[in-house]
Structure formats: structure tokens, C-alpha cells
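Could you help me review a protein record that somebody else here produced? This is what I was given.
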Amino acid sequence: MNSKYVPFTDNEENMEYFNEILHLLGVPVEVVWRNKHEMDIVKDLILNKPDWLESVHNCFCIEPYKISHRDYWAEKAKTFPLYGSQCGSCVKCRITNIARILYDPQVENTTVKDIQSYLKNTIEWIKRSGTTHLIDMIEGSFIRDVKRACRRYDIGIPDHIKAIPDGKKI
């Protein structure tokens, strides 16, 4: 396919072309391309640059609703540490928090009950919204890691989660 018809990002061929342009312009830099899944990038941040994650996390919730979502999580999962920028409920917060459940040492102080509560809520949230407008954000590595977290914390994986492809975007 002609590269003008595919997105620039998430396309190794375009990154190679970008490096050719840099070379032609005499810019002594080369972009290194590593095709990584979204959740693996969050994992890398947690493991290698944990102080960056709160700064690069961008919650999708608008401010007036963020307070009520934070209040909900303060009651529902008291020991689960949300970042100051998080609502805890939007797709971006869930992506970050599923990775944190699996890899963040700060979450080790969270009770198993609160982690299970967050995971069960996420499973229900996926059921409500995952097969419609958010499927492109939750399929692939996010679902892979939701399943991994459910197994780690002894939560059965329901059929609607099993049915969503994991590992790579389709």
C-alpha cells in the first residue's frame, strides 16, 4: 500500500522514511523504531522511569467529573493510590492503572480486596463500553494485561473479556 494512505505513526516503513529525510537534511540524528504495545510502554516507564509516569499520564476526564470519580474510588478502593492527575475511571486511567497493578511497587501496599474491586469494576466497564467506541483502545495489550491481572488476583475472566483479541491490535 502506498504510505500516503496509512497513518504515519505505528508504521515502521514511515519511520525508516523519516530517517532518510533526516539524513538528506544533514540532521545527525536517527530515530530508533521499536514496535511496542501500549501496555509495554507503560510497563517500561514504571520499571525504568517511575517518576515520569504521573507527568506523562493524561486523564481523559473533564475536571467537573474528576472529583466525583476520585471520590468514588476513595470509597470503593481506599488503599489504591491514584495519581493526582487521575480520575481512575477513564480509558487512559485504566490503561495506566492496570499496568500499575501488575508492575508498580507503590501498588504493593494496596489491599488485594481493593485491587480486585478495581479489576471487577474494569471488567464491567469493558462490558458497558468496550465493544463500541473504545474497542480500538482496549483490545490488544490492554486486554492481555487485564487478563494477566485477573489471573494474578484470582478473578475469573468472563466470556466478554475472553472474546476481545489480545496481544496485538487488529
